[in-house]
Amino acid sequence: MAAANYNCMICWPNYSDSGTLTDPNGAWSSAAPLSNLQNRFLSKAARTNDLSTFTDGGGLPYTAAININFGAAVPLSTISFVKHNLSLGASVRTVFWTGADMTTPVWDSGYLPVWPRWFDTLSLQWGMSNFWTGQIQQEQIPFVPSIYLAIPTDAVGGIAILYAQYATIYIYDPLNPSGFLQISRMYASSGYQPTINMSWGASIQWNDPSVVSAALDGTEYFESRPMFRSVNISLDNMSKTEGVSQVLLMTRMRGITGDVLFIWDPTDTQSVQQLSFIGRFDGLSALAFPTYPITSMPLKIKELV
Questions:
Q1: Same domain, yes or no, for 159 and 40?
Q2: DSSP string, 182-200
Q3: Which of 148, 164, 191 is the last residue of a domain?
Q4: What CA–CA distances, in Å, run from 65 to 23, 34, 94, 145?
C-alpha cells in the first residue's frame, strides 16, 4: 500500500552537503560563498553581491542561481532553503536535469512564491496590507520560520521521488529591501513517508529556552534565547518490514546528532512553512511490537537553530 500524499515526511540524507554547488554568473559573494549552504551552523550564510538581474535559457529574469552536481543520480523528494531573507515578492524555480548540459528537465517547478498564502481572507481585517494576498506581513517575517520548500509532483499531482544528478535553483527577488539575497542552509534529500500516517494526538510546539531570573524585590530579568519548535509523533501502524527496515534503521543512521527535515503535510501549502523544519531526533525510542507483526515507534524531533 502506497503512502497518502498528505502523510508526514522525514527527509534524509542531505545530498547537497556532498554535492558541488556552483555560481553560473558571479552573483554570489566570495566573502559569503555557496559552500556556506553546506554548513550545519545557521549563523553562516551565502549572500549575493547585489540584486543584479540575469536571464535564463527561456528568457525569464532571475536575481541569482545555484547549479548543483550531486555527483551521481540521487533520489530527491524536496529541496529547501532555511533561514533566508527572501522578501514577500520573491519567487523560486527549481529544475532537475537529465544531464550535465542542463538542457532537458526531469522536473521543472516553474516560479513559485517563497511566501505563499498563510491566512484565510475572512480572518483578516479590511485594509490590512496582506488582505488580498493572505501572506504574512513584512514586519512579522523576523519572528516566523523562513523556510522555502520545493516538493516534486508526478503527472497526476502526487508527491514524487525523482532521480537526478544535476539541478538548478533560480531565485527572483529584485526588490529585496536588504539589497542582497541571503540563505543559511540548503537541504536536498529523499523522504520517508509512513504508509499509515502518524497517529492522532501528534503535536508541534514552540519552545522558549530564555532564562528568567527574579530579584529579591520580585523584579524579573530576562536573558532571551532563540526559540525552537519540536514535534511529538507516533507511528503506530507499521508492518514489521517498514518498522525495522525504515524507521529503526533511520534512527540508527541519524542518531541524535544527524539532521533530518520534517514536513508535517507536504500537500498543505498554506501551513507547510509553519509546520516544517530541519531538526534532529531528541532521544531514540524502542521499536515496539504491540500486536505482532504490527510495529510502532514514538519520535520526537527538535528544531536546529
A1: yes
A2: EEEEEEEE-EE--SSPPPT
A3: 191
A4: 7, 10, 10, 22
pLDDT tens for residues 30-77? 999 999 999 999 999 999 999 999 999 889 999 999 999 999 999 999
User: Nearest Cα to 117, choosing from 101, 131, 103?
Assistant: 131
Do both 60 and 137 map to the same domain? yes
What does the alpha-carbon distance between residue 45 and residue 43 come to, in Å, rounded to a whole number? 7
pLDDT for 60 equals: 93
Sole residue written with cell 512579522? 140
Are 269 and 261 in contact by the 8 Å Cβ rule? The answer is no
- What pLDDT score does 1 carry? 60
248: CB partners within 8 A, 6+ apart: 287, 297
Q: What pLDDT, in 10s, does the model give residues 2-34?
A: 677 899 999 999 999 999 999 999 999 999 999
- What is the pLDDT, as a whole number, of residue 142? 85
Query: Which CATH number is 129's domain given?
Result: 2.60.120.260
Cβ atoms of 93 and 108 within 8 Å: the answer is: yes
Retrieve residue 297's grid coordinates.
Answer: 515507534
Shared-domain flag, residues 162 and 210: no
Q: How far apart are CA 262 and CA 252, in angstroms?
A: 17
| Domain end among 191, 215, 235 | 191
Q: How far apart are CA 231 and CA 272, in angstroms?
A: 14
Give residue for cell 544528478. Answer: 165
Residue 117 lies in a domain: yes
My answer on whether 151 and 178 are in the same domain is yes
Grid cell digits, residue 243: 518498522
User: How many distinct structural domains can be found in the chain?
Assistant: 2
Which residues have CB under 8 Å from 123's CB, separation 6+?
none
Range of the domain at 263: 203-303
Residues 153, 255, single domain; the answer is no
Per-residue model confidence as pLDDT tens digits over 202-261? 999 999 999 999 999 999 999 999 999 999 999 999 999 999 999 999 999 999 999 999
293 preceded by a cis bond (ω within 30 of 0):
yes
